[in-house]
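Why predict the complex rather than its parts? Because the way molecules touch one another can change local conformation, and only a joint prediction can capture that. The input here totals 433 residues.
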Amino acid sequence: MTPNEHARLAGQASQILRENDRGAYTVPTKGLYPFQWNWDSCLTALGFAAFDEDRAWREMETLFAHQWPDGMVPHIVFHQEDEGYFPGPDVWRTGRPVPTSGITQPAVAGFTARRIYERSKDKAANAARVRALVEKIDRWHAFLCSARDPRGEGLVAIIHPWESGRDNAIDWDEPFQRVPGEGIAPYRRRDVDHADPAHRPTKEQYDRYLWLLEHFRRHDWNNGVLHDLSPFRVVDPGFNAILIRSCTDLAALADELGAADIARANRARAEKGLAALERLWSERHGQYLCLDRTTDGLIDSPSVGGLIAVFAAIPEARAGAIGARIMEIAKRCRYVVPSHDPADSRFDAKRYWRGPAWLIVNYLVSDGLAAAGMDAVAETIRASSLQLIEKGGFAEYYDPLTGEPCGGGQFTWTAAMVLEFLRGGEARALAPV
Ligand code: GLC
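Output of the joint prediction:
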């Protein structure tokens, strides 16, 4: 890439962040997603940090201003009314002062906070606000490790597919059979007004998403009981690896800011999580798989959730196997990393999380691979990501076989990840746990 091309892409990416900026938070894209989303915001903060560090911290602070008293950080904050999205605040009815959804999303904040602080141009000036954020992130981790791991197994479960951030992944098909789809209030989807229905989750899936929502609402969003009352309880290696990595990073950040207790607690969480993650390894697939907590069996679905595991400091041999698997997958897919194994008959190149490639996933996986010393694989992913952008613009996600852009356009976190990839990746060892 020439310096001119580099500058052009960086300029376009920053422009998208500015266009989707609503002052103190950013919408993922106009139309399809008109509110603040949890992990979108944290990853978007990385993008802002490239040209406006204060705005980066504000993005995360706004999200954490809506943390629940029990420590949960909701997956959506409905800052203003918008008819264009379903299910809106009138469906969730969580009773929060500013309406929010009632479930969470991957806890990537510990990682992004550390990364932004590491690069901070004036650490002393930012220390107090970062310290306040560190305390809130710690409370979120504590929430996840108790409410979503009530028996202290070391791994947290998601209780709704939306919590994984991979809404309609093939991973959920089997456990979803236990979730009824009947008896829910009539509704009209809005996502299909903005995006091609053939690329979106199906009606059957939506019925079940809503059944779970209504079920949790009937129990007043009481996280003390929801885990055990949910017919859907899945341990996702991706969600857990992100949490583990965030615990490790939060510990390092807390140490730097003189919060020794927070550092200790998070190091212990990461250690316990890493040991427990082994339970999800599948020798047959050469990657991690999801575990159905209601049956205690692994789910036979080789998805990218099991590859995101490399974002945590997993054993070297596991990381090596994941790197090798991605290079195998690259023989079938022109653009990596697809969200599902293309060799599996259920792979669907255009349907959201059932095959397409997503830049945020590419970023997490390549960062983990680089930290594990697999720079060549990380570089393959980075190159693929930038090719997708050159070919199809800043889309929500891409068909990994053709590179066709899909879903919403001018997408915020895609732009933020481009700014990260343009920095050239970060082959840096993980702080020891
Ligand atoms: C979809 C994605 C989720 C993301 C949200 C907003 O629901 O599956 O990961 O946070 O859109 O971009």
